[in-house]
Records
---
Amino acid sequence: MIFEKVKQMISKEFSVDSMKLSRETRLEEDLNIDSLDAVELVMGLEDAFGVTISDEVAQSFKTLGEITDFVTEKIGA
């Protein structure tokens, strides 16, 4: 499942308990992800899922659910 993989990536990258992550978890407010962290996250997502994420799209991500929905749509899962 894509959401589980996204959770694992964020948990590992940002040292967050994956059990505390949900689709509603906000990147900036809940996880304190700054712009540099966001770039690293996007690169990891691109590698993990074989997708390309434009800067505009990456900047629009506010929650884990939005990331999951984007990846799901891109890979047709």
Note: Helices lie at 2-14, 27-31, 35-49, 55-60, 64-75.
---
Amino acid sequence: MNTESLDFETAVRELETLVEQLERGELSLEQSLAHFERGVQLTRRCQQALQDAEQRVLVLSQPTPEAPLVPFEPDKNAV
């Protein structure tokens, strides 16, 4: 299955399942290698999704002439 179509949460859940199966030690060598390979693909997909999210946050947090960033100052009257 192609990992590019998976969202982050789905990829993480599948990766967790693979790790659990590998940790049980009940798989054959071939199955273990296939699980490991899929795990590497999923890990790369997750890393890419996190990098994409970080880039979006950086772009969105850049000040613009229309909406400059203003330092946050807590309300002194708030309890």
Note: The mean pLDDT is 89.
